[in-house]
Automatic annotation (TrEMBL):
Xref: Gene3D superfamilies: Aspartate Aminotransferase, domain 1, Type I PLP-dependent aspartate aminotransferase-like (Major domain)
Keyword hit for Lyase: yes
EC numbers for this chain: 4.4.1.8
GO MF: cysteine-S-conjugate beta-lyase activity; pyridoxal phosphate binding
PANTHER family associated with the record: CYSTATHIONINE BETA-LYASE-RELATED
Keywords: Lyase, Pyridoxal phosphate
Listed Pfam families: Cys_Met_Meta_PP
Catalysed reaction equations from the record: L,L-cystathionine + H2O = L-homocysteine + pyruvate + NH4(+)
Species of provenance: Lichenicola cladoniae
PTM-bearing positions, type N6-(pyridoxal phosphate)lysine: 218
Protein name: Cystathionine beta-lyase
Gene for this chain: metC
InterPro entries per UniProt: Cys/Met-Metab_PyrdxlP-dep_enz, Cys_b_lyase_bac, PyrdxlP-dep_Trfase, PyrdxlP-dep_Trfase_major, PyrdxlP-dep_Trfase_small
Length: 410
C-alpha cells in the first residue's frame, strides 16, 4: 500500500474538527446557549398579507415559511453540510435514500435516460428498476471502472443524469469522477454523486460533480439513532430545480433528527480520525490472513480504482470489504458471523459500533456478463464497518471468527 491511507494528507481531520466546532451554530448577538434549540413547528404566523406574500417569494432561500418547507434547526444543519461538501446550497431530506431518489426525480423526465454504476447502493437500483421505469425513464447500468470512450458510447441524446457512487456499495470501486464529469457535461447531462463514504475526504464540486448526496444517517449522525439525508449543489439554477422538486414532493426532515445530526457532527472529525485509522489496521491484518482472497479498501493498492483514490481523496472512511477464498462457503461465513461477539450483524454503518454484513448473493450485477468482474471477488464476502472499539479487540474477535470459518469448512 502507499502510505497510511487513513490519514488525510491535506485538509486533515483536525481541519475538519476545527470547522465542525463552529459550523451550524446560532449566530444571535444575544448571549445564550452554545447550541441552537430544537425548533418545532408547522404554522408560521405573519403580521400581514404583505409580509406573507413577501416571505412566500423566498422559497428558494432558507426562509421560515411553513414547517414542511424546513425550519431553523434544519437550516443550521444545511449550512454545516454545504460547508463540509464545499457546495453552495444543501437540502436536508428524510433519509439517505430520499437524498438519492429526490435529485433523480428532479433532473429526469419521461422519455429520459439515466446511467447508473453497477456498484450502486441496492435501494437506489431498485428505485431505477421500479419507480423510474414506471415513469418512462430508462436506466442503463455501467461498469464503475468504465473508460472514457466506452462511457461516451453509452450516452444518448436523452441521457439527463449520469449517476456515480464512489466507492461503490459492497465492491468499493473508486470511480474516475473527473472523467465522468467531462463525459456528462459533454452531453448536457448532470453528474450526481452519492458521496456518503467520501464525506470530507472527497470534495465533490472540485471534481465537476453537479449534485452531491450524503446519507447523514452514517458518520454525520454517527450514533445509529437517526435516519436523514442531504443533497448539495453548487449551481443556483440546479438549486432552483432541486428545491422545486423537494417542495412538490413534500420532503421534510424532523427538527429532532436535524438537531441530533448537528450534535453528532461536532465529534465527526475525531470519530473519523480514529475509525479510519483502526479500519486500516484491521484491513491490513485481514489482508495477511490465509483465509482472505482480497480486501477491498480504496486506500490499499490492488483495490479497484486505488489510483483514483490516491489522486482525488485526502483520506478514507472506516467501511471496507473482505472477500474470502472460494474454498469457504457462504454458509461457513454465516457461522463465522454468528461467532462474532464485538462486531454486530446489521445494515447501515457510520455509527460508533462495529458491524459486519455478508454481501455476496445480495449484490446485483447486470453490466458485466460474468457478474462480479474479477474471480478473486467471487468468493463469499463481508462488508466490515469499524467503529470506535480498539483495533486489538476487533482483531481478536475476527481471529475467533476465522477459526469458526475454518472449522465450518473442514
Ligand atoms: C446508507 C446509504 C444510503 C441510504 O441512507 P439511509 O439514510 O439509510 O436511507 C445511501 N447511499 C449509501 C452509499 C449508503 O451507504
Amino acid at each position: 500500500m502507499s502510505g497510511d491511507g487513513s490519514v488525510p494528507a491535506k485538509g486533515g481531520w483536525s481541519t475538519l474538527t476545527d470547522k465542525l466546532v463552529r459550523l451550524g451554530r446560532p449566530s444571535g448577538t444575544e448571549p445564550g446557549f452554545v447550541n441552537a434549540p430544537v425548533s418545532r413547528g408547522s404554522t408560521v404566523l405573519y403580521e400581514s398579507m404583505d409580509a406573507m406574500r413577501a416571505r412566500s417569494a423566498q422559497r428558494y432561500e432558507h426562509e421560515l415559511i411553513y414547517g414542511a418547507m424546513g425550519g431553523p434547526t434544519q437550516a443550521l444543519l444545511e449550512e454545516a453540510i454545504a460547508a463540509i461538501e464545499g457546495g453552495r446550497h444543501t437540502q436536508v431530506v428524510s433519509s439517505g435514500l430520499a437524498a438519492c431518489t429526490t435529485p433523480l426525480l428532479a433532473f429526469l423526465g419521461a422519455g429520459g435516460h439515466c446511467l447508473m454504476p453497477d456498484s450502486v447502493y441496492g435501494p437506489t437500483r431498485r428505485f431505477c428498476d421500479s419507480m423510474l421505469r414506471r415513469l418512462g425513464i430508462e436506466t442503463t447500468y455501467y461498469d464503475p471502472m468504465i473508460g472514457e470512450a466506452a462511457l461516451d458510447a453509452l450516452m444518448r441524446p436523452t441521457t439527463q443524469v449520469l449517476f456515480a457512487e464512489s466507492p461503490g456499495s459492497h465492491s468499493f470501486e473508486v470511480q474516475d469522477v473527473g472523467m465522468l464529469a467531462r463525459v456528462a457535461h459533454g452531453h448536457g447531462a448532470k453528474l450526481i454523486l452519492d458521496n456518503t463514504w467520501g464525506i470530507h475526504v472527497f470534495q465533490p464540486f472540485e471534481h465537476g460533480v453537479d449534485v452531491s448526496i450524503q446519507a447523514l444517517t452514517k458518520y454525520p449522525a454517527g450514533h445509529a439513532d437517526v435516519v436523514l439525508g442531504a443533497i448539495t449543489v453548487v449551481d443556483q439554477a440546479d438549486w432552483v430545480v432541486l428545491r422545486d422538486s423537494v417542495v412538490q414532493l413534500g420532503q421534510y426532515a424532523g427538527p429532532d433528527e436535524c438537531w441530533l445530526t448537528l450534535r453528532g457532527l461536532r465529534t465527526m472529525g475525531v470519530r473519523l480520525e480514529r475509525q479510519s485509522r483502526s479500519a486500516m489496521t484491521v484491513a491490513l491484518w485481514l489482508q495477511a490472513r490465509p483465509e482472505v482472497a482480497r480486501v477491498l479498501h480504496p486506500a490499499l493498492s490492488g483495490s479497484p480504482g486505488h489510483e483514483f483514490w490516491l489522486r482525488d481523496f485526502t483520506g478514507s472512511a472506516s467501511l471496507f470489504g473482505v472477500v474470502f477464498r472460494r474454498e469457504f462457503t457462504a454458509a461457513a461465513v454465516e457461522d463465522m458471523v454468528a461467532a462474532l461477539g464485538v462486531f454486530g450483524l446489521g445494515a447501515s454503518w457510520g455509527g460508533y459500533e462495529s458491524l459486519v454484513l455478508p454481501t455476496t448473493g445480495t449484490v446485483s450485477r447486470t453490466a458485466l456478463a460474468q457478474g462480479i468482474r474479477d474471480p478473486s471477488m467471487s468468493g463469499p464476502a463481508l462488508r466490515v464497518h469499524v467503529g470506535l472499539e480498539s483495533p486489538d479487540e476487533l482483531i481478536a474477535d475476527l481471529e475467533g471468527g476465522l477459526e469458526v470459518l475454518r472449522a465450518a469448512s473442514a
